[in-house]
Amino acid sequence: MPLMKSWVDSANAADHPFPLNNLPYGVFSTPGSDPRCGVAIGDMILDMAAAEDAGLVDPGTGPLFDVPFWNEVMEEGPEIWTALRDRLTAILSEGSADRAAAEPLLVAQADAEMHLPFLVSEYTDFYAGRHHAFNVGTMFRGAENALPPNWLHIPIGYNGRASSVVVSGTPVRRPWGQIKGPDDDLPRFAPCARFDIELEMGAVVGQPSDGPVTVAEADAMIFGYVLLNDWSARDIQAWEYQPLGPFQAKATATSISPWIVTRAALEPFRCDTPAREFELLDHLKDCGPMLYDIDLSVTLAPEGGAQTTIARTNYREMYYSAAQQLAHHSTSGCPMNPGDLLGSGTISGPTKPERGSLLELSWGGREPITLDGGQTRSFVEDGDTLTLQGAARGDGYTIGFGTCTGKALAALDDPYAR
Amino acid sequence: MPLMKSWVDSANAADHPFPLNNLPYGVFSTPGSDPRCGVAIGDMILDMAAAEDAGLVDPGTGPLFDVPFWNEVMEEGPEIWTALRDRLTAILSEGSADRAAAEPLLVAQADAEMHLPFLVSEYTDFYAGRHHAFNVGTMFRGAENALPPNWLHIPIGYNGRASSVVVSGTPVRRPWGQIKGPDDDLPRFAPCARFDIELEMGAVVGQPSDGPVTVAEADAMIFGYVLLNDWSARDIQAWEYQPLGPFQAKATATSISPWIVTRAALEPFRCDTPAREFELLDHLKDCGPMLYDIDLSVTLAPEGGAQTTIARTNYREMYYSAAQQLAHHSTSGCPMNPGDLLGSGTISGPTKPERGSLLELSWGGREPITLDGGQTRSFVEDGDTLTLQGAARGDGYTIGFGTCTGKALAALDDPYAR
Question: Within a 10 A sphere around the Cβ of B103, how many other Cβ atoms?
Answer without folding.
Answer: 12
